Every structure is written in C-alpha cells, then in structure tokens.
Amino acid sequence: MPLALTLNGAALPSWLTFTPLATDEVFSDSTQIINANPTFAERGTHVIKATYTPTHGTAISDFTVATIIVECLVTSFANPANPSV
Description:
Blueprint: E1 3-7, E2 16-20, E3 32-36, E4 44-52, E5 60-70
Antiparallel strand pairs: 1-4, 2-3, 4-5
C-alpha cells in the first residue's frame, strides 16, 4: 500500500522527515512523527499532500495530510546604544 507524499506539489525537502512512532509491524508504516528542521528561508505555510495507491483499486490523490506553518521566533534582541533613525 504505497503512500506518496509531496510538499507544496514537489518532493519532500531534506528539512522535513518522518520517523516511525510504533515498532509494531501493523502500525510502523502508518504512525509516524513529522520532524522539521527548517531554515529562515523556509518560513511560510507548507501543505503536505498524499497520494495513496492501494494494492487493488483506484488511487486516492491530492488529500492533505498536514499543514505546517514555519515562523521566525526571535529568542533575543540587542538594542544598540546609538540607533540610527
């Protein structure tokens, strides 16, 4: 039962990976954690879509698996002594 994933219509980028959550044979392919390690350039909204192709039957395509929002988080800020105006 192959499942093909895309991000915004293209192949998944290297900053986005999936890790199996369960070690059970039944769930290892279907239960996974999404790991994201984006850079500043990847900020924005990204949609992971899938195409499921069952062994017998018609493929189900273009359904949304997850929407990921990458934002910029400022963790520190230094105020210059003489800011230019």
